[in-house]
Specification:
single chain; 183 residues; mainly alpha
C-alpha cells in the first residue's frame, strides 16, 4: 500500500478513544437527551393542562432565562470547583426538576408557577452540563487529539439532543407525559 509522506504517523494509526472520553461522551449524550426532553415537555404540558398561550410562553421563557442568568456564573463555578463538579451539579438540578415534577404537579394549585420553577432548574442544568461538556476536553484527551475528542463528544450529544429527543418526546407525550420526567 502506498502511503503519502505528508500524512503524519498519528493519522495512519487506528487509535482507540480513551475510556474516560467514551464515558463522558455517553454521559453528555444522556444528559443532553434528558434535558432536551424536559425543555420540550414542560411548555407542552402547560398547554395540555389548559394554560393560556402566555402562560405556556412563560414556562418556555423560564427555561431560556437560565442562560443569561447563570451563564457567567457557570464559568466561575467551573473554574473554582471543577468541570466534573459543575457537570454533576447540572445533573442534580435537572434531576430535582424531574423528581419535583413527578411528586408535586398533581397537588399544586398554581401549575404554571411550579412548571416555571422546574423550567428554571432544567435551564440551570443545561447551562452547567453544556458549559462543562464544552470545556472538559483538555482533561480527557491529549492536545493533539482535541479534534477527535471534540467530534465524538459534541457529535454524540448533538445526535441525542437534537435528533433523538424530538422522536422520544413525540412517543412519550402522547401516551404517558409523566414518563418523560421518569426517563
Amino acid at each position: 500500500m502506498l502511503v503519502s509522506a505528508n500524512i503524519p504517523e498519528r493519522h495512519l494509526q487506528m487509535n482507540r478513544p480513551d475510556p474516560r472520553l467514551l464515558r463522558m461522551t455517553g454521559a453528555m449524550a444522556a444528559s443532553g437527551l434528558g434535558i432536551t426532553l424536559m425543555k420540550i415537555a414542560l411548555p407542552t404540558l402547560a398547554g395540555a393542562m389548559g394554560q393560556s398561550p402566555s402562560e405556556i410562553g412563560l414556562v418556555a421563557g423560564s427555561i431560556s432565562v437560565a442562560w443569561p442568568v447563570f451563564g457567567l456564573l457557570a464559568g466561575w463555578v467551573l473554574d473554582r470547583y471543577g468541570r466534573i463538579a459543575g457537570y454533576w451539579t447540572g445533573l442534580l438540578a435537572a434531576a430535582v426538576a424531574a423528581t419535583g415534577y413527578l411528586l408535586l404537579t398533581d397537588q399544586q394549585a398554581n401549575p404554571v408557577l411550579i412548571l416555571c420553577l422546574f423550567g428554571l432548574l432544567v435551564g440551570l442544568g443545561e447551562v452547567l452540563t453544556e458549559t462543562s461538556g464544552q470545556t472538559i476536553l483538555p482533561d480527557l484527551v491529549d492536545k493533539e487529539r482535541y479534534h477527535d475528542g471534540n467530534s465524538l463528544l459534541q457529535g454524540a450529544k448533538t445526535v441525542f439532543a437534537t435528533l433523538l429527543a424530538p422522536l422520544v418526546i413525540a412517543l412519550l407525550l402522547d401516551g404517558q407525559p409523566r414518563a418523560v420526567f421518569a426517563l
